[in-house]
Amino acid sequence: MYPSLHLGPIRIGLPLTQAALSGYSDWPMRVIARRLGASYTVCEVLLDQFVVQVSRGSRAKRFLRVTDEEHPSGAQLMGNTPEEFPPAAKKLVEAGFDAIDINFACPVRKVLGRHRGGYLLGEPQTALEIVGRVRDAVPPEIPVTVKMRRGIDDSDASRERFFAIFDGAFALGAVAATVHGRTVAQRYEGRASWEFLREVKRHAGAKTVLGSGDLFAVQDCVDMMRETGVDGVAIARGAIGNPWIFEQARALFEGRPLPPPPSLHAQREVIAEHYRMSEAVYGWPRFGRHMRKFGIKYSQLHPRGNEVRAAFVAVRKPEGLREVLDRWYAEDLPGRYPPREHLSEGW
Prior knowledge:
alpha/beta, TIM Barrel
């Protein structure tokens, strides 16, 4: 039903991608997303300075890890100094990432205060110098892409800067842009403007545009593609604790019926595998705190979600995660799709 998505020379396939998620889209989450139908994933955003400095040990194992079943997988870079991006981009390519994505979207106040992420949407000259330097630094076969919000705010000046960066990035060799339909000032409040995504895609013509924002359910992915004309969707918060969104969207994109939500045993199997991989990456007992926040998100698919969420919230030691699985996922009951009210409350 949809053309195959390409990022330059890389064939992605169905236009279903997992966006970069700070603190979430690490190696375990990306692998599980791929196994359940994501065509492409992007690692959590990395600071250019950090990538250059990290070399070995647990931090390198966590952040610079790419395995065979992930390909293609992208790495996202963020910073504020153009000169610091090229060595970081090269190191990520050496680590095995297939594409470099540049973050001009992060709305977190600390990031903005350090002139990174979404701040650079107000600095077209610096943003485009970064794109150009990264494109020159990495091999021609490595795609360079950008992640953007629709501007700093809703002013005319912000809009002009957005399109200056958008057009300039493609002119410098970027092969795709992922556009989130909120402004930086909105952060995660209010609705993402799919109308703006439609306008951007009309403006872009044949250039590749991926849409992001308010993709919490399978139908959202279908609706965004249909209503805006974007070339693909980048699912972010909607994939946390619900990697089955890719499997379900893939069915609809291929013209098949929507699969039922995963049963509790299917959920338990994936959560346990996520548990195992996280322990391998973070070690004992640190991985427990990391998996606890994922468990809270997974609970939205349980028919007794409020009680299961409370059980994960109460976990204080890693072994408590197993106890939650043993108690609440023992019987193979039908699961449920994520309730809309839970998504809006930040489950």
